[in-house]
Amino acid sequence: MGTAFFQPADGVTVGLFWVASNGVYVGAPVTEPAPNVILTATGLRVTGTHPEGWAWSDIAGLEVTEVPVRSTARRLAVRAASLAAAALDAWLPSSPTEMTVSLTAADRTFRTPVYSSAAVAYSPREVALSRNLIGRFIQGTATPAVMTEWWERTPPVRALRSREREALLELWLARS
Fold it and tell me: Choosing a second label site near 67 at 20 to 30 A (CA), which of 18, 118, 123, 140?
């Protein structure tokens, strides 16, 4: 996949999503021809070499797997590796973690890879809240429009901390 590194002015990570004025992505947006999974008020759209789209009412299930989840051991290992690399002046940014989006519709199951938009990993709570929100999109009790409306009203000027991201996800869930 082709990746591009985005700044907070372009969008921001909130849970498993990249929220920006031009839409809500599952994972980080990437340059074409790599696929993007974009959530809209009316459904889900996949871009890339094989573009497809589904209305929310046609989606029976949507799952994001291979999500990097932060644990105490992982956090300590990343911190130690970062300190060692900095001490050796050998820091090289790592590639984002690849996740898989699996969509189940009446006629078939569709899978596509996406990149994680988390710097290292997501908190377990952030993943659970994101999955709950995705479930509400499928049930029709919530819409990704709440996320783009938030972006338009209060675009952040920096990357959000995990507690801030969790609070936003909780707010969006409460509105559904």
Answer: 140
Mean pLDDT confidence for 49-59 = 95
The answer to whether the beta carbons of residues 54 and 70 sit under 8 Å apart is no
Identify the burial level of 86 via C-beta atoms within 10 angstroms of its C-beta, where 0-12 means exposed, 13-18 middle and 19 or more buried.
Answer: exposed
What angle in degrees, to the nearest 10, is found between the helix axes of 145-153 and 162-174? 120
Contact 56, 137 (CB under 8 A): yes
Query: pLDDT tens digits for 131-145?
Result: 999 999 999 999 999
Q: Which residues contact 109 (CB under 8 A, 6 or more apart)?
A: 102, 103
- How far from 93 is each of 82, 114, 119, 136, CA to CA, in Å? 10, 18, 10, 35
Q: Is 94 left (phi over 0), alpha (psi -120 to 50) or beta?
A: beta
Q: What is the pTM of this model?
A: 0.82
